[in-house]
Amino acid sequence: MDYLAKFRAAVEGVRDEGRYRVFTDVRRRRGDFPKAVWRSPEGEREITVWCSNDYLGMGQHPVVLDAMRDAIETAGAGAGGTRNISGTTWYHVDLEAELASLHNKSGALVFTSGYIANEATLSSLAKILPGLIIFSDADNHASMIAGIRAGGCEKRIFRHNDLEHLESLLRAAPADAPKLIAFESVYSMDGDIAPIEAICDLADRYGALTYLDEVHAVGLYGATGAGVAEREGVADRIDIIEGTLGKAFGVMGGYIAAEQSITDAIRCTASGFIFTTALAPAVAAGALASVRHLRRSPELRAQHQERAAVMKARLRAAGFPVGPSVTHIVPLMIGDPRCTKAISDNLLNEYGIYVQPINYPTVPRGTERLRFTPSPLHDDAMLDELMSALDELWVRHHMKRVAA
Q: Where are the alpha helices (DSSP H) in 39-162?
């Protein structure tokens, strides 16, 4: 068998659909977010990044950088291995205590990424709770889907944010079966929000646990940045909150926060935790500094929301097809993979504006888009440049405007 031909054919199939990704060679500049330097075959060029998940620029914040430098000077580079074998560092212990406090839970557990946090936790719950049925929102993250599949338990998929469908599935399940409802707060491609309180009501009615992915909300929503559940006053009704340290907190890693017995059971069961080298001490220290800073920085969250609202309003007023986002996510709907990539390439090559095309399988075919994530550091001048570029490209690509 010609194995390499199989791999080449797989890549060509992606190319033929117009969704082959070429990585953009970008170097962020310390203290200058959202500016970066793009390295192309033609040389280096300054660009403005509009698609970073470092939503608040905390990856460049002095309190984070100082904490990471201090940790390197104190503890060196690596963690030395898994926390079970090589020991756990003070940085990890303090970070977990801070995260538990942030979510008003008695326990927290840190993983190497948000993906691993979801996959490892959800797959482990199926082992800890024999006969578990997981009720999963149709638009859940790939990591949640992977964890549910890996657990091998029964699953029921309910239509996105559809409470009636969810209740019908819960009602049809055996009353004595353990149940868990897995969903997100902010859905990162459309920018909509789950009806968290109503889902908690259903969980109470049918005896289900709740598992809430807040990765696109922690640091950004709520009085202390604990997420949408905090903002809506229902965090105490969520059994397991999953979050990331790699988006609003600006570093890397993922975590769960729950009652200590739950996090302890996951710690003892999850292969993705047990057999993975721990986060570097400097990363844990930077995340800890970021969480502490954002807990007392509501003004940064307010600025973030103001920037997103201004951007959505200007795009809609100009007739651009912005999705119905109610959050900081700004999806500009295009609906064709080749056109989406072409506009993205034009923005980068001609205007120094970087925003990645979002295509299948991240979003359904026919809903391809550019996903903008304005931060508090994207000023009016940057937005003016973007609007002017989009105006020109919309005409060039014969794109339609919509009524404001």
A: 62-75, 83-86, 90-102, 114-128, 142-151
Instruction: Give CA 157 to chain center in angstroms.
Output: 21
Structure tokens at 352: 């120094």
> Would you call 289 exposed, middle or buried from its count of C-beta atoms within 10 A (0-12, 13-18, 19+)?
buried
- Helix (H, G, I), strand (E, B), or coil: what is residue 278? coil
Residues 101/148, Cβ–Cβ less than 8 Å: no
Q: Both tokens of residue 129?
A: 């709770």
Active site residues: 247
Query: What is the distance between the alpha carbons of residues 383 and 370, in angstroms, rounded to a whole number?
Result: 15
Question: What digits encode the pLDDT tens for the residues 327-372?
Answer: 999 999 999 999 999 999 999 999 999 999 999 888 999 999 999 9
Question: Which residues have a Cβ under 8 Å from the Cβ of 400 and sit 6 or more positions away?
Answer: 321
Q: In sequence order, what are the beta bridge partners of 15?
A: none
The label of the residue with tokens 């390197």 reads 72
CB 258 within 8 A of CB 72: no
Q: Is 278 exposed, middle or buried (0-12, 13-18, 19+ CB in 10 A)?
A: buried
Both tokens assigned to 193: 């929000």
Cβ atoms of residues 23 and 8 within 8 Å: no
pTM value surpassing 0.90: yes
What does the pLDDT look like over 300-322, one tens digit per residue?
Answer: 999 999 999 999 999 999 999 99
User: What pLDDT score does 19 carry?
Assistant: 81
- Provide the 3-class DSSP secondary structure of residue 54: coil
The Cα 26–Cα 33 span in angstroms is 12
Contact 156, 168 (CB under 8 A): no
